[in-house]
């Protein structure tokens, strides 16, 4: 019997463990929505990842504000939360909101009240390690009159199940030392994520203020609808956005996107060096890749053992 096709693609090395677990769910015939929530929850729960969930880095007030989103590409239902504090696993709240007919995006106190009412777990998301890192960076930046902004690595995951249902999810603690209440692209439909099971899906990571200027994820899906391959759509969208930003705004931040079409084919584009992402399919076990762009075209290859070991040391080693 021929194997039924399924696939996952995710931003950043931090998604590897979640993608690996979710691949078994899809292999066993689970819906792509479960693969998304379970894989992103794995990332959110790991305390050493500084840009997502528990252990995420705080805003300028020293508080962890989290954003997350979920979209079902078959029904086009979506849900999102922004600026939510002291609630575990915002991806689960976003997925739950996608089942509501109205009020699909909730922010701040309203999102927190709704989550508690619905039985989601309250949790202090600021770890001692994150506080220590915050203080070190504060002394190195704001304390010296320098810009503090860095660290905006959203986890975004796309899953296609054996029935070709495509879902996408995102989760992030946002820009490190952001202003209280700042919201980036991650919970904004069309910018940080978009999915249509009849076409495909995309999810973006990088500087949200710039990614939103191009409605990046929707634009990638639109290009796939118009006949481009996922790789062509990803590169064309980021190349056009970066050029436009330089021409009209004078600068461009970090921009990266991963995507998948309805056939399970994937694409990736980036304007940074060694952008890491993860792929798993019925034919390929969960694998970390590194992407680079030259002359407008992105190429990628599996990360080697040295890179993976160095990554693990950076994540779990002594704070500097």
TrEMBL record:
Active-site residues (renumbered): 154
What are the UniProt keywords, alphabetically? Hydrolase
Q: Which domain of life is it from?
A: Bacteria
Please give the name of this protein: Isoaspartyl peptidase/L-asparaginase-like protein (Ntn-hydrolase superfamily)
Residues the record marks as site: Cleavage? 153-154
Q: Which GO terms describe its cellular component?
A: cytoplasm
Q: Which organism is it from?
A: Testudinibacter aquarius
Gene Ontology molecular functions? hydrolase activity, acting on carbon-nitrogen (but not peptide) bonds, in linear amides
Q: Which CDD domains is this protein grouped with? A: Glycosylasparaginase
């Amino acid at each position: 019997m021929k194997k039924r096709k399924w696939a996952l693609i995710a931003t950043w090395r931090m998604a590897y463990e979640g993608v690996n677990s979710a691949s078994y769910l899809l292999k066993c015939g689970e819906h792509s929505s479960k693969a998304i929530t379970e894989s992103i929850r794995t990332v959110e729960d790991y305390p050493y990842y500084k840009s997502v969930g528990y252990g995420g880095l705080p805003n300028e007030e020293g508080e962890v504000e989290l954003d997350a989103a979920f979209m079902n590409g078959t029904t086009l239902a979506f849900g999102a939360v922004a600026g939510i504090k002291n609630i575990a696993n915002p991806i689960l709240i976003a997925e739950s909101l996608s089942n509501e007919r109205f009020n699909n995006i909730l922010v701040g106190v309203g999102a927190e009240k709704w989550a508690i009412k619905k039985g989601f777990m309250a949790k202090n998301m600021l770890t001692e390690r994150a506080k220590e890192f915050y203080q070190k960076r504060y002394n190195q930046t704001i304390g010296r009159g320098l810009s503090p902004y860095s660290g905006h690595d959203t986890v975004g995951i796309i899953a296609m199940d054996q029935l070709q249902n495509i879902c996408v999810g995102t989760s992030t603690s946002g820009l490190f030392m952001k202003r209280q209440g700042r919201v980036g692209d991650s919970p904004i439909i069309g910018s940080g994520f978009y999915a249509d099971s009849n076409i495909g899906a995309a999810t973006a990571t990088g500087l949200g203020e710039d990614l939103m200027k191009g409605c990046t994820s929707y634009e990638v899906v639109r290009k796939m609808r118009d006949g481009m391959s996922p790789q062509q759509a990803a590169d064309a969208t980021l190349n056009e956005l970066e050029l436009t930003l330089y021409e009209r705004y004078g600068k461009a931040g970090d921009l990266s996107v991963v995507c998948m079409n309805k056939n399970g084919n994937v694409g990736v584009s980036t304007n940074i060096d060694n952008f890491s992402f993860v792929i798993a399919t019925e034919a390929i076990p969960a694998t970390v890749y590194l992407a680079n762009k030259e002359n407008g075209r992105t190429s990628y290859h599996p990360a080697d053992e040295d890179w993976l070991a160095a990554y693990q040391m950076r994540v779990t080693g002594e704070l500097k």
